[in-house]
Amino acid sequence: MTPARVIDTQRLSTLAHEYEREIHQFFQDLNAVPMESGPAARIQRIERELGKAPFEGIGIDSQGLLAHIGTGQRNVFIQAQDAAGVVAAVSAGRFIHELGMYDDFVLWVSTSPARGGALWDLHTDCVVQAEPTNLCIQMREAAVEGFLNESHPLVAAAIATYETLFELPPIISQSPSATGPIGIPAIAFGAGGNGAASVSIRHLLKAAQFYAAFPTMYVEEIRRR
C-alpha cells in the first residue's frame, strides 16, 4: 500500500461529490429500516456497502458489526451507531481505498456500542465517536488525564484535518460522554445535530471526508512528536 503523507483535498472532495447520490441513498435506506425488522436488516444493508471497499475481519453480533481496512501499526477506531455516523464512516473506508490514502494505520469501523475490552484487545490508539456534533470537535475524557486538550495529539490531528479539508478553524469544546471508551483518548465529530432526520447531505459528505483524512493526519502528528 502506498503511504499517503499529503492529503489531496481536491481529489477527496471530488470523489465525495461523485458518490453523493450513493451516499444519500445509503443514508435513506438505513433510516427506512423498520424498527420491527431488528438489527439484522440494518446490518445486511451495511454489509452491502462494506463490500465496495476491501474491508476485512467483518464480525457481526446482535448489536452490530466491526470491520477494518488497512494494515498499519496505529489502530484508529470509529464508533458509529446512528445512520449518519455509519454512512460517513463506511464511505470513508471506500475513499481511503479508491484514493490510495493508506498509511501506517488500520481504520476500524464499529456499529456496536463501545466495549472497553474489545478496544483494549485491539490496542486502540484513539477513538472518534461518530456522533451528531454539527461538525464540531468535542474533546472527551481520557482515563488519567481527565479531559483532553488541544495539545493532545488526537485533538491536534483532528484540528489539522478539519483545517486542511475545509480551510476554516473548527469549533472545539469539551463534552463528557456516557458511552465513550474508558482509558482511550477520544473525540466526537459528526454530521447533524438534531437527530437523524435533520442531517444534510452536505454534512454527510464533510463527515466522510474527515473520517477518511483523519487517520493519516493522526499518524503524521504522532511521527512529529
How would you describe this protein?
This protein has one domain: Zn peptidases (Aminopeptidase). Helix content is 43%, strand content 18%. It has helices spanning 9-18, 20-32, 38-50, 83-98, 116-121, 153-166, 201-224, and strands at 56-60, 65-69, 74-80, 105-110, 126-130, 137-139, 141-142, 146-147, 172-174, 186-188. The strands form 2 sheets. An 8-stranded mixed β-sheet has the order 1-2-4-3-5-10-6-9, with helices on one face. It has a two-stranded antiparallel ribbon with strand order 7-8. Helix 1 packs antiparallel against helix 7, helix 2 runs antiparallel to helix 4 (83-98) and helix 6 (153-166) crosses helix 7 (201-224). The two termini are 24 Å apart.
